[in-house]
Write a structure and sequence with these properties.
- By secondary structure, this protein is α/β, with parallel strands linked by helices.
- It contains seven helices and seven strands.
- Helix content is 45%, strand content 14%.
- A seven-stranded parallel beta sheet has the order 3-2-1-4-5-6-7, sandwiched between helices.
- α1 (15-26) packs across α6 (211-223) and α4 runs parallel beside α5 (151-170).
């Protein structure tokens, strides 16, 4: 008997979003697939319906546009069957500030931060009403490492990580789950020359993960109840050490006097 559970995936026409669509359909989810390219969405929807027997609704929307974000928000709020949102849509302009336009920087912020946040709000409204749901936010390993060409992109992904961590604290102990996924270099169209600014051929092949492996690792992390999933990191202790150091650093800030090294107290 087919389940009535529904997942919404943004940026679903290719790459990681299409990978999630396939894997979730295989798990019995009906799908609402969101992306700009209607032709690709239609092709993918037909394929997944034929392969897995699930209902797939293509929802054409450009998350850089206010009206289209509002359309997806409405879908998230109005459908009580939606149990999962993969907040995947985003893009990179990997170049220095000197080589970037302000429009490029603001467009990354608009999609990677503003649209993601709005859709999370909309999904969580429904999850709170139903007292359950899963929110998956796709960040990047560049959330914790800024490069000379990634100041804006790293900043947007650092936001996704921090936003997700705050939500995890907010919903701790409930049946509303928030996972943040931090992929490293993955073989997607984000590397198309002229889009990210760096072609995939510039990276050594051993550093690039397939979409299938990335999504399968992320879903395995979700099933293992990981809050933060690093698909390419073999030693989980590295993350735990990093997170512990972060907590210790924050604890060290909770004093009312300047640090002695600044020699401000006589």
């Amino acid at each position: 008997m087919r389940s009535s559970k529904t997942a919404v995936v943004t940026g679903a026409s290719s790459g990681i979003g299409a990978g999630y669509a396939d894997r979730l359909a295989a798990r019995g989810y009906d799908l609402v697939l969101v992306a700009r390219r209607g032709d690709r969405l239609a092709t993918l929807s037909e394929k997944l319906t034929a392969q897995y027997g699930v209902r797939v609704e293509p929802l054409v929307a450009d998350l850089a546009k206010e009206s289209d974000v509002a359309k997806v928000e409405e879908r998230l709020v109005s459908d009580p069957g939606i149990q999962l949102l993969v907040n995947n849509a985003g893009f990179a302009r990997l170049r220095t500030i000197a080589e970037s336009s302000l429009e490029d920087s603001l467009s990354q912020i608009n999609v990677n931060i503003t649209a993601l946040t709005r859709l999370a709000h909309a999904a969580l409204e429904g999850f709170r009403a139903r007292k359950e749901g899963v929110l998956i936010n796709i960040a990047s390993v560049l959330a914790v490492q800024s490069l000379p060409i990634s100041a804006v992109y790293s900043g947007t992904k650092a936001y996704v990580l921090a936003f997700s961590r705050g939500l995890q604290e907010e919903f701790a102990g409930t049946d509303i789950k928030v996972q943040v996924v931090l992929p490293a270099a993955t073989d997607t169209e984000i590397w198309t020359e002229g889009v990210s600014g760096i072609p995939l051929s510039a990276l050594s092949s051993e550093r690039v993960m397939t979409v299938e492996h990335c999504v399968d690792a992320a879903l395995a992390g979700l099933e293992a109840q990981e809050l933060v999933t690093w698909p390419s990191v073999a030693d989980a202790g590295l993350w735990y050490s990093f997170d512990t150091a972060r907590s210790n650093l924050f604890a060290a800030t909770q004093v009312g006097a300047p640090a002695p090294r600044y020699n401000l107290i006589k």
